[in-house]
Protein 1
Amino acid sequence: MWEVVTKYLLRKRMNSERKYDLLIKNVQVVRPNSTLIETSDIAIKNGKFKQIAPAIDASESIEVYEGANKLAFPGLVDAHMHTGIYNPLDQDAIVESKAAAMGGVTSSLNYIRTGGYYLNKGGPYREFMPEVFSLSEGNFFVDYAYHIAPMDNTHIEEIPALIDEFGITSFKIFMFYGGHGLHGASSSQHEFLMIDEDEKYDIAHFEFVMRGVQRAIDKYPEKQEDISLSLHCETAEIMAAYTKLVQQENKLEGLSAYSASRPPHSEGLAIFIASYLANETNLPNINLLHLSSKKAIDAALQMQQVFPHINFRREVTIGHLMLDIDVSTGNLAKVNPPIRPREDVEYLWESLLDNKIDWVCSDHACCKHEDKVDIENPGDIWLAKSGFGGTEYLMSALVSEGSKRGLSFNKMAELTSYNPARRYGLRNKGDIDIGLDADLVLVDPKETWTIDSEKSESGQGYTPFEGQELNSRVTTTFLRGTRIYDNHEIIGQPSGQYLKRPY
């Protein structure tokens, strides 16, 4: 007995005297804002990067992990997710954050709002968010944060408190909600949004949200770089009119019909409106979300020229990069904005390669098969709910397809980690550097595999990416120095922490 205790105490003492908790040997370190990829070891202590250098003595670490010459990227910051939109938040947090870890994601930034879906509640955020935090705590396998959408005047007044008390520094406007529901035309705006009859969710409201965010910046000038407003840019009136036209003409079906019903110029017009209002309200930080088309990209670039003093950021999703209207999975790929024709997809890639896009995300929303396919009318695109998951393929797909097109690994690290981390106030994320959180993803750039939804950790049960062949794969994910995904399996229990920003 005493021999066992003595050995335990000696081992504990030896461990306490070692410089590192974990040493990852022999990896190709991919850092953003660099052109180099260096063979190195990575030493971690207390959840932080401690040393990055070749040939670190393995005896100085409690644990040693062989990296086998794989690419080591900063853990992904998936800047656009919708955990809990269609399923109970506490359940979605567990299952969909497993999918995130599978994809190399270590920080999940989730859009959430009052109204239909999510918690299906209205009212002030000071009552809403504590419930969100309660349902989230202890359920995420990755670190997490929330973006908030101010839906009424009360929410606008709450913006400073959301920043100060809850550490939420990013806000959102869904521009199409003025005349559309989540999936199509809606005449019951107040019911869907759960706002009072005297409230309007329209262009005037968008302006007042911007003014509210700007007042918050004035109140917290030290957080100016971290406070931003994101916009889903589609114009409700254009969409409503074109949806009617497409349905009446009845010449198109599936994704082609849905793309035509929400035409690209609807995106462009919304971008013009949003940009002008940002200038009018002196709002400096604007994020244009999930740009899906040439017209949307061109509009965003035009507005950057017209208003050079506004710090615009432009986002695309892996879905819009990897899918087009002819994808074999059809209606399962319904999303807002729509999946577009191939020529738009190619333009997104051109823009990415030309440094006109700031980050790539998933827009992950677990929408189960029964919500996508109506039993009585399985081919009816208008009855399918919008959105699908994909965070589990974000890194593998970008490395696979991006490599073919000449996108550098260092640029990929910027697009998936560094840029969104810096924009959204995650100062300790997004890079492999001493003192930062030891979030890391290992990628085998030569593993060929075929996407199979049955092997996904997501609860969705299908994927619009089904059958696509990739030639790169995430093999291991570390969250703050702890393996959470390895050898195709989730490891351990949920250990994700809420990221109060600035973080």
Protein 2
Amino acid sequence: MGGGLSEYPHGFRYKKAKGSNMKPILSLCLILLAALATPSADAARPNIVFILADDLGAGDLGCYNKDSKVPTPNMDKVAAAGIRFNDAHSPSSVCTPTRYGILTGRYCWRSRLKSGVLWGDGTLLISPARLTVGKLLQQAGYATGAVGKWHLGFGAGKKADYSKPLTPGANDVGFDYFFGIPSSLDIPPYLYVRNNLPVKPLSSKVAGSKHRRQKGGGFWRNGRVSEDFKHIEVLPRLAREAVEFIERSNKDSGDKPFFLYFPLTAPHTPWLPTDEFRGKSKAGYYGDFVVQVDHVVGQVVAALEKTGQAKDTLLIVTSDNGSHWPVGDVKKFKHAANGNTRGQKADIWDGGHRVPFLARWPGKIKPGTTSDETICLTDFMATAAAVVGKKVPANAGEDSYNILPALLGETLKGPIREATVHHSFSGMFALRQGSWKLIVGRGSGGFTNPRKIKPKPGEAAGQLYNLAADPREEKNLYLDKPEVVARLKKLLNKYRKDGRSAP
């Protein structure tokens, strides 16, 4: 299906104006021309808010997991007021590549970053010449803002220089306004950036934390820090900035809609719930941090409602990858952060990249609906384009499909995506088509041991699973289904060679 590149989204209804005395044939022509020029989803040009949690598992949310040990009332309310996708995936199982994919509609392994993530001194990964979701919406008349964890680099050359203006940066790839931190809460340097300028200089150093997981204090690496940066205060400050952006947009933009990209810093390590949220879950500091994430979602919803913009806003809540929650934590807390999937963050198995995906759009998305459609976060670009009646050019959004028909609950003739490519921390590839998932290699490709297995003579060189019968990816059919392996390998190689997977 070529919905991602279609100029005219599904669902447009033609209506003849009352009292028209024009000749029927001319009237029909004019109506058809108007239909071609004005897609239905563009009628209101809704505000768009995209909340991206950091390392949040689908199994953390009550709307996905009735046995969750973490209360998530605000995200559950978003699901109840809109749609919940049960087969949503991040394009990568770690941070930077997913962010690249969301904003460009392109798999990150097509960029210079072939594995891993950017470090704090990394330079801008997105070319300023490339179309992003932010640029697309700017062209559609939107005010655009990004608040939160950037993790896509600043500047050009070999390393980012935080003593100078950080250009090119977020302001150069589609955002009128930016406030946030360079990367994760455990990766230096530790400072705030506003509109490509450091808010405060890196004036001192902070020692690395010794406590990695459940012993308190969180974990971060030693490095340079600004005087106004306190790790535990970052998430609350980002929440305030996001709310203020919504309030400013309501007061200052007039009829101009806004797009807010809000990538959170949590529940990624260090697990630093503030006192208000300590002990609010039954899943340790991690679970308490998820409760705080849920509170932040509630703050955004409250700001939209307070300013009277909720009814005109498409709100999306998702995560950049699966939870960093190994088997030991599942057993200890009896909490399946990644649901009934194998693996965790960084892994090529579904636990690494199956994510929660909730969307609310009053009057457009039917409340309390669910979808089993397979989607990927790279689909945001083509979908945003369809919402505002824009066309994604041929040199952009190479891996983005339009999922607006699924959001709106339309009857689909077939799967929206032909297939989906997955990518692990180490750069291991997988391809999912229907119920079949091919993994090109053995092991997790990520954090779970064994990370890489060298097959012995006669053993399977890769992994093949039928997810419909084996959602836990435990029965490797690689040697039993050579025809399926060959077909999926051929399609994966085609996607890699062609430079795109979307039609």
Protein 3
Amino acid sequence: MATLARNTAWLTVAKTLSLSVYAIFGLLLPRLVSMETNGVYTLMSTLLFFGSAVATIGVPTILVRTIAREPNQAGQVYADARRTLLLGSFVAGFCVLAYLLVEMTFQGGLGIERCVLGFLVCGIIFGEAFGSLGEALFQANEEMAVPAAWDVGTGLFRVGFAGCALYFAPHWGLFGVFTSFLIGSFIRGFVLPIKAEARFLPNGLPKSNNKRTKALMLESLGLALFQALRMLRNRLDSLLLGLLIIPIVGLSLLETSDIARGLYGQGMRVLFVFHALTMALNSAVFPRLTRLSAESLVDPDSEVEVKHQFGRVLRYQAWWAAPLAVSVFIWADPIAGWFGEQYRYGVEGLVGTTGGVLEILSIVVLLDCIGGPVGMLMIGRKEMDRKLPFFGLVFAVSSIVLNILFIPKWGILGAAWASFGAALVEVLVKIVLTKRLLGTAKLMAGSLPYIVLSVGISFALIKVFPTLLESPLLGSSLFICAYIIVSGSFGLIDSGITDRLRRLSHG
């Protein structure tokens, strides 16, 4: 438990720091570039997000899972993984460029700017893939300090240089931004694997061969399809906006889609903090859950520990995610106003505002946070590998269908509602899977007290002090302080957190 707490702390602190840097960049971006340019940034960021998932094709997760179960296989699986990621990076690059080609053709012709940005994104994907390989080796050995530090360092480098490029060389536009990201990714992709190999594989790597690499690819195929399809559910709305949005009168489809993505993407970037913190916690917990799940097959007592750890992680997720989601929901419009009047009040001829998107997506990310530990449980069970693509397909299809129905009718709000519908489908499926994998679905109900408490405290606070609705910083600060006090009074704060705080206060 001490190791788990330490790893969680390292990753949470690192993600919080790196996210703070990206959050500042996200706040400044709308003030430094036009809404249309912000929309192009959203497109490229989405392709980068999706391409990175395709490039890794589930291999880092398989690496962690295999080493957690069979530490003696670390060198061999790492060597095979490195070779597999090289192939995956080329496949991802092809997918990114192919999508750009299709969208530009559909919108009326090729654009040199987007083509160049597309190639920069492909380079970033390559660097991120190999960085993830080194990070996975640290994660498999439950040592998160080094990759956490590099996350912060490279995040500062990327955002710092990108911000300087926009401020001092605005004529570079997004070229300067993504070039900075490319350099940072290459540094991380080069250094982290070297450090990981020196730390855990000092005797060198065995040779990889075609047979073992093929076996690894086959093992990761189910997980790869699941992650890619799951990514589609999570980011498909940003892509389909460019194809399904109804053009504003007097503007082309290309211009309208850039504006729509600018409004929608700004809301997504505010809420990305939830996903990043969730991924930090899940990454710390994954090796432990995987090991316990493997042990439970031969030791029934380990199954009890799996349920205990799962329930604890779920409650921890809900404890911090519920008040943050409620805060974003309540103060969505003022938050949107920080980016500019158009983000708060919208653009004439286009349905929806960034504030409206934030209200809907705040609920979406709360559902995703609660369902996150179930995803780790699914991936950690090897017997689920062949079933994962089916669940991924269900999640992706629900998103595709809802986006096709909603975007033409309700614009960016339609994309947000489609995301909500797909997230609801996913969490319902995960409740059923929890019952199947752990023998009970009651553990999922552990998140409800935190949601009820967050809603109740916020309602009471706004009822007593209605002027706080236009003061997001003060209002959310008072709300979160009240939430921490009340949740602590009712014993809803995880004992691991309180014990650590107590040790720090006495240390």
